[in-house]
Amino acid sequence: MAAKLTEALLLCLLCFILCVSNSLPIYGCKEGERKALLNFKEGLKDPGGRLSSWIDQDCCSWRGVQCDDQTGHVVQLDLGNKIPLHNMFQYGQRFEPLEGEINPALVGLKHLQYLDLSMNFFGGIQIPAFLGSFQKLRYLDLSCAGFSGVVPHQLGNLSSLQYLDLSNVFYLPCNHLQLARSHWLSNLSSLQYLNLNFVDLSKASDWLESLNTLPLISEINLSNCTLEVPLSLAHVNFTKLKVLDLSSNYIHSGVPPWLFKLRSLENLDLSANAFKELIPSAIGNLTSLRVLNLANNRVLEGGVPLSLKNLCMLKSLDLSENKYLHGDLNELEEVFSGCIKDSLETLNWIYSELKGHFPNWLGRLKSLKMLNLYYNSFYGPFLQFGLHSLIKLDISRNTLNGSVPVNLGQLYPKLEFLDFAYNNLTGVLTEAHLAGLAKLQHLGISANELSVGLRSSWVPPLGLKALLMFGSKLGPGFPSWIQKLENLSVAEFSNAGISDTLPDWFWNFSKNLQLVRLSNNDIKGKLPASLEHLSGLWYVDLSGNSFEGSVSQFPANLVYLFLSSNKIAGRIPETLCYLKKLAALDLSKNQLISEIPDCWNHSVQPKLFTFDLSDNQLSGGIPTTICSPSLAYLHLSNNNLSGELPLSLRNCRALMTLDLGQNKIGGSIPTWLANSLLNLEVLGLRNNMLAGDIPPELGNLTGLRVIDFAYNYLSGTIPYSLGNLRAMKFAPKIFYNTKVALEIYDKIAFGYIDSMEILYMVSNKLLIGYMDNVNVNLKGRDVQYDKLLPLLISIDLSRNELSGEIPEELMYLSYLQNLDLSGNHLTGRIPEKMGMLLKLESLDLSNNDLSGAIPTTMIMLSFLSHLNLSYNNLSGRIPQGGQFLALPDPSIYFGNYALCGFPLDNNCEDIDEQTSVRYPKDEDEVEKIGFYVSIALGYNLGFWVLWGVLLLNKKWGYAYFQFVDYLLFATGDWLWKGKTDTL
């Protein structure tokens, strides 16, 4: 008995020891798995040093590696590189990405359950098929990691996988993946989350059937997949599906009826499609819906479905950018009278041409927290009803008038975000208006007719992070109450009527300053020697003021620096070269001297896309290090630069504007310029010392639309190849690249904007940064083009030594607006096809040796408002008609002694006598003259016969003129569409 008891006690003790030993952690990773990780590391490039900890023996302590506490096996490899949304404009690209190849040695991690390689850049390689061998893998994130090609079907072997993300993000194109077939998706029986946004599914026609077999799937994201959605589904198995995103596929079929059988659905996104049918009333059956996005669609052409009022769980509704749903919101009162009025927390209705006064039913949405109605056409007074739960109110960019309610704090006591910029509101903004808004973090009042009457003793809401007062009457003194805002990140006081010295405290009152814009005031004072203590500062715009002194030292995170149009003097500091995140540098219109530093290659990953040092007193040559892979705009005009165009400019392959005018640059225009800078749109070399021929290769630059070589020593003929410039033959594409960066940044920086709103802003090109500009001589005067620069199409070769005839090929540049060939030695006649340049506004051919008559086809130039043909050898009668009658200045014809007719005093009969009667030289010419005379006689006879009949028969006359109107309209439309080259 005792022996049995002893045996039992020993057995219990053994079990206890085993249990304790199993619960004790095992320190250190397995040697085989450590080697696998090191082999994996060898195939990678790590410019940011993210794998610097991968050196010691214990791989479980390495960054991104996690081991199982009990077994010591590597179970998690997290090398994701995700960028917060509020940084996407700041950096514009991945931050410290891993690059290179994925070594197959990774399969040695046989116990791996979690793998995240997102937001890196693997250079367009295919997703390795061996990733399908990780049998225990539950989580796989390869989003935006630089993969391309067909997604390997071996991923279908991951039967334990619960989470799969192969997507792109909309603001950073990176993956270029395609699903050739989707049947393997049905093997992922454990899958709960699937994100294939921006993966091409155009060839995967069976995607819906494959996904319909997954019993546990709860979220499917298929945005921008180029897919077609089948209208029918035999049996709906999506019993656990809660999130479905089919946005931005431009689906042209009807709205699939099976969608409205997904009773468990909580989030449905159908935005940016083109459904042929309207949203049926069956949408009211989705009673579990919490988020519904119908933005940018045609499905609401017939109005908002009345059944929406039955969605008692709905918290977020987006009806934005529906061009077919516009008008007075008062008509929708019944829709928002149901239980939706009690649940709705977010209502987005932007870019929709809504008009009228704000409807009263908005005041019944008592649970509403966010209301976005910006970019519409609402007029009348500010919102007059209270919404006590409201956190965000954005009614900017409408046409509201009247005053701002004094009791804002009582109407919206929880408000954190308030923006009513770009309206027509009037009056004085006082402390009373902002009293009670203690939680306010964002205040935008820009571009109204408001005066700011806030006293220096006023205590603002101390939580303010963004303050936007662009175009407000804030001055003339600099408001001292700003220094109380210790949390301020965004300070926008441009064009605010400030005429004062910038106080010393401005650069020290808030350590959180990220974005400062004080442009277009009359602020005086010196820039501080250093702003390096503001480590978060990344946007500075002080342009258009009276700042003096030298350029400050800026913090390492600076991205945008605009100091143009001040009185800043001295040298350009080399410290600017070491700002590795610098994207835009504008120091134009100052008093900078000496040479441009040649140190711009110190940045490891140069991001500079704008470099503007124009209108200074800089000397020396163009730096050889100035080019970066991203440089798009290079402005060095109006300085004292010398030397030749450096060969290093060939490396500026992204360059769109090269403006080196008004310097002392010599040599010739190199042919490599046209062979290397294939994206060039604006080429300005005006007023330099260039000689030699114009390279014919310029005609190969398909995007070139502004050429300015005036005031040089160029010789030879005008290349006929310039007639190949495609950008001058077709209507220009308009892109907006403005400085309304703040309107975007401050909204995303503090969490008051969602990804869809950012997508709207990106798609509308409201980008942070720089508005390109260029000076051109147009219609005899210097004009600066900035906002309208994308519309400018111009050739100016004036004041050179060019010879030969005007190439007829130039007459096929249908959208040319300005042609200046004056001050050369051009001979021959003005091309007869000059009348084909129907968009021409300014034509200067003066001071050449042109001869012959002015082509009568030029009567067709209905946009022509500036013409100069003076000092040539032109002869004959000035055409009478069209714009020639609207140009009564005789000086535009001076120096052509054989010209006659209006507006000259020369009588054409006198000119004929002076030049004597010219007789035909041969029989062929006699025959031609007889032919033209017979045509004229026949025309006159036919003309009077036709008009006689039309005058006698009114019905015939009415029918004839209807036909002529139609013919003229059709011909005009034909010419307008750029078909003049076939005339």
Automatic annotation (TrEMBL):
Enzyme class, spelled out: transferase
EC numbers for this chain: 2.7.11.1
Keywords associated with the record: Kinase, Serine/threonine-protein kinase, Transferase
Entry keyword annotation includes Transferase: yes
Name of the protein in question: Non-specific serine/threonine protein kinase protein
